[in-house]
Amino acid sequence: MRRSGPALASAAAVGAWIAGASTARAVTYAIDPARSEVRFRIEASKHHVIGRTHGVRGSAVLALGTLSGARTGEAVVDAASLNTGNGVRDRVLRGKLETNRYPELRFKATGFANEHPPAQQGDTWRTVLLGDLTIRGVTRPVALEMAGRWEGNALRAKGSTEFKLTDFGIEPPQFLGFLRVKDRVRVDFEVVVVPGPR
Phi/psi of residue 35, each to 5°? Predict the structure, then answer.
């Protein structure tokens, strides 16, 4: 996969958040692809497969410096951009994701799993973001464990989640006819969210 669904899965997430305190002005923030990345890792017989992409975009309504009351949030990964560093393997993964028919991996935030503390400038916060992940036309709920902080008017966050390929109707692929990857995928992401639509 050139930039995998999962991965994104990810990534994607982060743009999701945060909208602000009642006294703060809420504005549209967007993921900065140049400073953001989604990665995935799948274990296989005697090795593992790692893919990554900067092909992630998304937006959210936020208020500067707060983590309360996520209003809207969505992240989208260009599935065909997932890159494992091996052309043959990338073609197999793109085929499994059916990127011609389903070009995007999409995460839509639905809320936080627990109460989270208010975030001040420079403070690191941790939370669990809940949402719906769509891969190859199948949508499943996921939970993203996240940490991040405000840096000026930008929000920098990173996190991860895990899921099974078969949950999305995808059979784990084989390479060279005998190397089979496992069902479980780990997705990690780092994103920077800045003011303004992208």
Answer: -115, 15
